[in-house]
Amino acid sequence: MDNSPARAEAGSPPDYAVSQWVSRGFEKRCPEQGQMRYYVLSLRQNLWGAWEIERRWGRLGRTPSGQRVETFADRAEAWARLARLEIERRRRGYAPVAFA
């Protein structure tokens, strides 16, 4: 039995904060080095109300080559991790992009 604080009481649905879910996209375009890559960070809640960051990455124009999901007990911890991941992507030469 999961006793984590993010799990909802038995029989009651979790309290979703959909307005705080975000997705951020990044691209790295360096044709002279053969680098045409993307990276997407998504912050959301899972079915039990715990916060997750999903990371997807790969080559532009291709199917994703990697994906990882991290789960956090609370929103503040997840937001802090999201901020660190964004800084890391920018340091590695990725630029933010807008997407729908």
Give the helix proportion (percent range). 10-25%
Radius of gyration equals: 16 Å
One letter per element, helices H and strands E, the order comes to EEEEHE
Count of helices?
A: 1
Could you give the order of strands across the largest sheet?
4-3-2-1-5
Strand fraction equals 35-45%
Low-pLDDT sequence parts:
none
Count of extended strands? 5
Overall mean confidence score, pLDDT: 87
Structural category: alpha+beta
Question: Biggest sheet, in brief?
Answer: 5 strands, antiparallel
Tell me the domain tally: 1
Determine the N-to-C terminus distance. Answer: 38 Å
Q: What best-fitting shape do the alpha-carbon axes yield?
A: elongated
Q: Summarize this, please?
A:
Helix content is about 15%, strand content about 40%. It contains 1 helix and 5 strands, in the order E-E-E-E-H-E.
What does this structure look like?
This protein has 100 residues and is an alpha+beta fold. It has one domain (20-97). The protein contains 1 helix and 5 strands. It has one helix spanning 75-91, and strands spanning 22-30, 35-45, 51-59, 66-72, 95-97. The chain starts with 21 loop residues before the first strand and ends with a strand.
Topology of helices and strands:
Layout: E1 22-30, E2 35-45, E3 51-59, E4 66-72, H1 75-91, E5 95-97
Antiparallel strand pairs: 1-2, 1-5, 2-3, 3-4
